[in-house]
Structures are given as structure tokens and as C-alpha cells.
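This is your field. Please look over both lines of this record.
***
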Amino acid sequence: MKGAAALAGMLALGAASCASAKPPAADPNLRCTFTHPATSVHTLKALPVWLRGYIHDQIGPMADAGETFNATDVVSKPAPFNRFIRGGKIGAYWYIWFEHGGFASWRQIDVVAPPNAGGRATLADTTNRLDGPTMCTTTDRIVGKLLHGKR
């Protein structure tokens, strides 16, 4: 019985600390530069319509950069579990950086090929659980492999 009371106390303390959690602030290191020539955008509104459609259909609801999203699994107000960080074009490919909240939070890169003759955009590569400047180097590596067949 004593152990159950201790466990209940720990769970209550954990819930209280999560309830006050706020979405992480934008990391200035995410404005790093690429080795490949790139055009970057810092808002969902600047992405092509087809890419916003891909996000809607394949990823789901997404808050724009700096907007509120559910960074933890404690939902204090209705908001998406994904938030846009940065996107842009390198060669023929578009990249999307976003963070996903919930019980386990992470940052993710999707590299997307533009629509084919059938009008569908396709995921060329994806990786997640990244932080800070490694997002630029990882995006460069992925796009380099796609453009030049290099690792």
C-alpha cells in the first residue's frame, strides 16, 4: 500500500510538471546554411500549394513556425502535434523540417520530390530525432545522395 501511494505521488508530480510545459522556442541554430545551393522559407505559407497538400495528406495538421502546438502528451488546448520549422528547395527536391510533439518529441526532415505526371508528390527520404545544426548537414547528405548518387 505504501508503494502504491508513493507511485501515485510520483505520477501526480510528473503530470503537474508536464502540464506546465511550453513548446520549445525556435532554435537559432536551425538557420544554418547548406553546401548545396538552396532557397529556404520560414513559414508554411511560402511553400508551394502542392507541398502544403502533401503535408496535409501525409503528415497531418501542422502549426506554422512559432505557433503553438502540442509539444507534450498533455493537451492544454486544441492544437496540432506537428509544427513547421523550415523548408525550402535544393535542386528539384523540397525539404520540410518539422517537430512532432507528444509523449516522445522529435524533429524530422522529409525530402519530397515534386508532383509526377499523375500529380502526386512523393517522399524521397526522411529521417528524424535530429537537433540543431545537424539538420543542415543531414539535409545536405540526403539531397546530395538523391542528386548525385553519393552518400
